[in-house]
Target: HipA-like C-terminal domain-containing protein
Amino acid sequence: MVFNILVDNTDDHEKNHSLLVVNPRGNGRLKLAPAYDVLPSNSGLGFQEFICGAHGRESTLENAMSQCDAFGLPPGEAAAEVVAVIDVVNTWQEHFAHAGVSACDIVSLAERIDDDELLTQRIGFDQARFQSGPAKRKRSSPFRRA
Model:
């Protein structure tokens, strides 16, 4: 979700999220499938397909952090994950060049991924804001059996 926000991938509908069955003949556990169909929409609309926080579909890190406890992450831990994703997104051009993406395509993508709005979110995220305060009680997962 954070990666989608940072690269303006707003096409994150339910058909772009999958679970894989691990050991189907055994216990049949589920795990997230590797990411796919992830690319900037270049729309700049500022909204995700799914609700991602207290401010609905607003495509901001602030909104994503507003409901981190719903994902089972205390604010400090969630902020650390956001910083890790920011670090990856900050080096996207090197990754793309290494993968053989043309310079022309990188320049085109940079117009969106590194535009003022998205770059400001990456630069302006302050992990320290989420380090203090009492930890919220972890919500039980709706996927766990009692």
User: Anything to note?
Assistant: The CA atoms of residues 72 and 141 lie 8 Å apart. Strands lie at 19-22, 29-32.
